[in-house]
Amino acid sequence: MDSMTVYRGMDIGTAKPTPAERTRTPHHLIDALDPWESATVAWWLRRAEEACEEITRRGKRPLFVGGTPLYLKALLHGLFPGPPADEVVRRRLEDEAAREGNDRLHIRLAAVDPKTASRLHPNDLRRVVRAMEVWELTGKPISTWQQTWDTPAFAAASTPPAARIPAVVLDLPRPLLYDHINRRVGEMLKAGWVDEVRRLQELPQPLSREARQALGYGELLHYLTGRGGALEDTAERICTQTRQFAKRQLTWFRHLPACVPVAAGSPDTADRVLRAWTGNSLPIL
Q: Which residues pair with 259 in a beta bridge?
């Protein structure tokens, strides 16, 4: 359940399971796309359903492991029927942000959809552009399209999941979580993350807009141009952005009613996780 491990060649920076781990436990939806291709929520949900059918036919129970909140929401509550992407509109909005700054586009969004603007950072360009794209295409804010899952409107418009799915969120104290993030970024760089990004840069086609959103990859691409300053400064920016993402991620999980927080590393962690896996439903870890 990770929007970036689907891309081939993006291994170190996405903390992809190692070949040994994947031999010991079968993993699905990893290395499913080339990095110049684009993964959407609808694409992932279809592929996840196919994987679950194949797993259950073997008499096994699927586990969804990862932390992409939008994938989790779609898995738990279905998809809302928003308009498809319009590449012309999207490219114009992206060019506007590049020319006038992300803040200017965010101000425009706040004028037409203050609810969405209040939860999006100006630098979350992909989602700001998508929100403006929906407004321009439909004349209706994306916050209206994205009705909450407990309203009749959402229930009528969305495609519900096939089964109730309990969700377990492994929780760490914030200082410990941030320390883990800082150390992991350092370990990734030592493992050859810069060389991995350099190889991606040399591919015959550029990274897709979605793949470029992977944490740290944009910063390292900028570093490789020679304009990003010292590697230590780039590493610090990656740490900061990853901590900010983790904070937003936890906010998402807190607002999904199905999510059960479980303290990671406590003596009863395994017992509490197992208690959340009831009936024949498909658990998420």
A: 167
Q: Which helix (H) or strand (E) holds 108?
A: helix 102-112
Measured in residues, the chain has a length of: 285
How confident is residue 274, by pLDDT bands cut at 50, 70 and 90? low
* 262-270 LR contacts (CB < 8 Å, sep 24+): 262/168, 262/169, 262/170, 262/171, 263/170, 263/171, 263/172, 264/170, 264/171, 264/172, 265/172, 269/170
C-beta of residue 36 within 8 angstroms of C-beta of residue 24: no
As a dihedral over the C-alpha atoms of residue 220, residue 221, residue 223, residue 228, rounded to 10 degrees, the angle is -110
Tokens describing residue 115: 């609810």
CA distance 79 to 84: 12
- Helices 125-138 and 87-100: crossing angle in degrees, nearest 10, is 130
Structural domains in the chain, sorted by start: 19-80+163-276 (3.40.50.300), 87-146 (1.10.20.140)
Q: pLDDT tens, 23-70?
A: 999 999 999 999 999 888 888 999 999 999 999 999 998 889 998 988
Give CA 96 to chain center in angstroms: 24
